[in-house]
């Protein structure tokens, strides 16, 4: 299975709201298999469709994070149906490599969506997994984790990212 190219935060597709998936066909299934492989190859724990240049409303995520075992799942047309308690924690993103920041997130979330067979799925998550769900949901709405920071902090991280990008390209 081919690895997919992960776009970085300068790509406008990451600002696009992903579109509802109405039809789960073979090409979509193959896409999600490639996304899972790409996620692990990049040492990530979640990957949203627009990060690999698509606008389908879905992400892949490793729900085994807290158990320290691999348990990748695909969630289509996901929604957060409940969230509770706020907590600060460090966050990074495969589309903003090497940049990390403390972000406030709900400590508990409930997420509903559909699996690849079109069956409804529901996940209750807390801690790091809850954070990962919220991070991927942001992507699907055209958001990035640093949108949750002040403009000054975000601009500082953006400059840092662009500097690193330049270093990589020279
Ligand atoms: Co991300």
Walk me through the topology:
Elements: H1 26-41, E1 46-48, E2 58-62, E3 72-91, E4 101-114, E5 120-126, H2 127-140, H3 151-169
Antiparallel strand pairs: 1-2, 2-3, 3-4, 4-5
The structure holds cobalt (II) ion.
Residues 93-95, 135, 139 line the site of cobalt (II) ion.
Key descriptive features of the protein:
alpha+beta, Peptide Deformylase, 5-stranded antiparallel sheet, 3 helices, 29% helix, binds cobalt (II) ion
Short description:
The chain is an alpha+beta fold and 170 residues long. It has three helices and five strands.
Q: Could you characterize the architecture of this molecule?
A:
There is one protein chain. It is built from three helices and five strands. The mean pLDDT is 96. It starts with 25 loop residues before the first helix and ends with a helix. The radius of gyration is 16 Å and the shape is globular. The chain is 29% helix and 29% strand. It has one domain: Peptide Deformylase (Alpha-Beta Complex). By secondary structure, it is of the alpha+beta class. A five-stranded antiparallel beta sheet has the order 1-2-3-4-5. Bound molecules: cobalt (II) ion (CO).
**Under the CATH scheme, which architecture would be assigned?**
Alpha-Beta Complex
Query: What's the shape?
Result: globular
Per DSSP E runs of 2 or more residues, the count of β-strands stands at: 5
Mean pLDDT: 96
């Amino acid at each position: 299975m081919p690895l997919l190219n992960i776009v970085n935060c300068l790509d406008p597709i990451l600002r696009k709201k992903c579109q509802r998936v109405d039809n789960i066909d073979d090409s979509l299934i193959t896409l999600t298999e490639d996304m899972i492989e790409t996620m692990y190859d990049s040492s990530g724990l979640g990957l949203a469709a627009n990060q690999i240049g698509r606008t389908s409303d879905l992400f892949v995520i490793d729900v085994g994070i807290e158990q320290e075992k691999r348990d990748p799942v695909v969630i289509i047309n996901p929604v957060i149906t409940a969230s509770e308690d706020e907590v600060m924690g460090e966050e990074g993103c495969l589309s903003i490599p090497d940049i990390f920041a403390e972000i406030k997130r709900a400590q508990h979330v409930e997420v509903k969506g559909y699996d690849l067979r079109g069956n409804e799925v529901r996940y209750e998550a807390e801690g790091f997994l809850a954070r990962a769900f919220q991070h991927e949901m942001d992507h699907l709405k055209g958001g990035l984790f640093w949108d949750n920071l002040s403009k000054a902090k975000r601009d500082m991280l953006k400059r840092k990212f662009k500097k690193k990008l330049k270093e990589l390209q020279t």
